[in-house]
């Protein structure tokens, strides 16, 4: 919008009758037109201004053969003029003289300024306007909405046709800039869905996104018409667009300003005018519309990029290959899609494998894949297969990338089928002004903030699930902590959790506000306060640890200033005092070994057995005469055969190491036991460098990931979140032993590399307990100290172990902690 210059000469003076008539008509319509619906108000408002412009143009001599044309762009061009929006006009001329041009332009602009009309105007020749459009992407997008208002049709037609032809032929060279501009706007303005006070125009899923899709449709890169169909995947784009237009229209009328952000102070009146209930009901309507538009804009932008023809050197490069990500899931052309052999109609776990691949890589799920899954995948059996729960944990522990993954599933109905209780919190607006997100997005953000904290707890799986479910009881008019704890029981049973884990999870949901409320409102020097918290948690130090991390994630996901150094220090002090009251927790110890494997160990040979467990999991037992390096080589053999280790126990019995692993194949079926034995024997004998092969494969995979990162669209997340590794030295009463726990984000071969680090440090592994929760590993190793070692030797051995572990994990000594187990 431009402000008028100081009028002088014939342009100044009293307000013209045309301006006063327009101003009076605008005031009358604003005061008397409140009974009109939003769409009717836009139509009448458009007719008023277009009629005035046509009449004024005729008065100024802007006729069919005048060499002038008046063109509307923006809302005027789209026939969507809102009460307090700018009037966007272009005065086209056919190289008329400066004097005539000045007279006609002033005759148009000054009456509009005098009538207090917000005006965005320009004066161009057709070639000049096309030149601006070719160099300014924002101007080009605006001119795509150009529409003839008055004057010479020939000029308007040349502009409209020229801009559109220029747009279609030049889109390939402008796509990168368009994508960058769109993602930049999304990052500045956030999503309309899930925001307490959304930006209806520029937010992700807002009106500008529909105009973006219109532009891509004009470039013939997407099926814009199909997106508006009532049965379109993700919902009808046209219906959602009209919803946002109606809300923005009423927002202008209620606020008396050209607001784009729906502030809470206007929401109740807007909702009442639209007849949708209160502001909370309006928030759900807006969130649903915003999600529909965001879904189409995200998938449409990717479709447009993939539809662009390849030219030059890129045309000689072969089409993208399919890269396996999981069973039945591949990456193709920057998206997660189904493998050719996938059979979603017979594979309920496929949804979560797709979701895990998307969250883990940061790649979006293809629109066709989402539709195919929504149309054909069966419901998950009860209880869930263990593999499905693992995939859910991978999603929840992925960090920022999980936002778009869950949103894609939820927009297509897949998330609600996995978690029916989600329906009550979807699009639910917050009741507390400190919350900046809707309840469902707040839950997702809590999981995002919990991901970096997973190595602070022994059970990262319960932390992730607690983040997902902590507010699941909201939206039902009762205490959400109490109801949520009740809902967790059937949810946990459906997920296949053990009764003990369900109890812990219910306790997390029931008491997720206990620590922050007590820390900020109670007297921490009062022993009764500490006793009351400990009693509420039944003296469960593991629950205390989980609640501490959950409270931090919950606070950070609420809004600015909710989590602070002051609050963090109070919480830490409360937790420390409660731990003292709760006293110690049992330390880890060696697992018992079955008599069958003890008898095999007596032969002192090399044995490998594989037998199926539940679902896709198998138990692999590898026995061999104990020697330094055995554990790392056994784990490396499994990793090289694409077997993911979920848990493991390592024991030594009468000179024989008994390594028991629970594994599942990343793809296909597990290898034969004979093949594993052959590789294991070769590794033990030094004939096969399994650890060197594993390190090379990891290096190649890292280089490939870096190469792909450069090809991912601007603004898209490149990698999932990672929690910082932690090395915890655990107290042990056993003389001559050291017990260390390593918590880190899991990756293929991690156990092999950790075991190798301990072996390089000269440690003899007496036993080990390994667990993988989703994408987080928690591995405990018990090592013997040198015979007769005194305190100095033990300290030196511990320092060498730390050095080797820190090198493998790639972190500094700050990752090392000395504390009792479970803290």
Automatic annotation (TrEMBL):
Residues 619-695, 739-816 form the ACT domain. Residues 1-324 are annotated as: Uridylyltransferase. Residues 439-540 form the HD domain. InterPro entries: ACT-like_dom_sf, ACT_dom, HD/PDEase_dom, HD_domain, NT_sf, PII_UdlTrfase/GS_AdlTrfase, UTase/UR. Its EC number is 2.7.7.59, 3.1.4.-. Has four distinct domains: an N-terminal nucleotidyltransferase (NT) domain responsible for UTase activity, a central HD domain that encodes UR activity, and two C-terminal ACT domains that seem to have a role in glutamine sensing. Belongs to the GlnD family. Modifies, by uridylylation and deuridylylation, the PII regulatory proteins (GlnB and homologs), in response to the nitrogen status of the cell that GlnD senses through the glutamine level. Under low glutamine levels, catalyzes the conversion of the PII proteins and UTP to PII-UMP and PPi, while under higher glutamine levels, GlnD hydrolyzes PII-UMP to PII and UMP (deuridylylation). Thus, controls uridylylation state and activity of the PII proteins, and plays an important role in the regulation of nitrogen metabolism. This is Bifunctional uridylyltransferase/uridylyl-removing enzyme. It comes from Mycobacterium rhizamassiliense. The gene is glnD.
